Amino acid sequence: MRTLPDARDPDAPLRVCVLADDAIARAGLTGMLADADLLVESARLTTDLDGALDEHGADVLLLDAGADPSRAAAWLDTLRATIAPAVALLVDATRLDDVFAAGILGALARDASPATVRAALASAARGLVVLDAGFHRGRGAMVSERRASGPMSSLTPREVEVLALLATGLPNKLIAHHLGISEHTAKFHVTAVMAKLGAQSRTDAVIRAARQGMVSL
After folding, report:
1. Which CATH number belongs to the domain containing residue 192 in this structure?
2. What is the mean pLDDT of residues 82-86?
């Protein structure tokens, strides 16, 4: 794995490498980014992002996932160990969890404006996380849908309260004190929450709940 890049000269042109399987997409993105402040080249999409960053001497990568959102899984799932600064262009928000789990810093819509893409690349090169505003709204809608149809809908109001307190790290005794119930009853509710979430431990329950948008960490 490559080491983290040294701080780049802020006055130097940003070096961008466009990675896409489709030659037309590579040419279009390269032309779109043509700018006095950018040095752009392109190559076929690779699962070795760290290697691509070194090979092309780039500061940041721009990845085109293609028009079919299901195809993104073929390469996103192999990128979890990368530290290469990269921005992914996606059709929609359905693969956002995979994008950020892979260590990619930015996610934009494929029809994002040139100015938006340039700004995202500059931000990612500085180690900042970038998310398309439309994806943020779509992500919120998906979280709400998961809450309505997923494990959250099976939790009782008391179990929801217990889950929220679990997420703060409180033990059963303090959960009981906070809710005005016995420690035995608190333990019963914790066990029920874990069972409904399919969790093996209290920590696992909180992690699963966070992934479903039930609690914030």
Report:
1. 1.10.10.10
2. 70
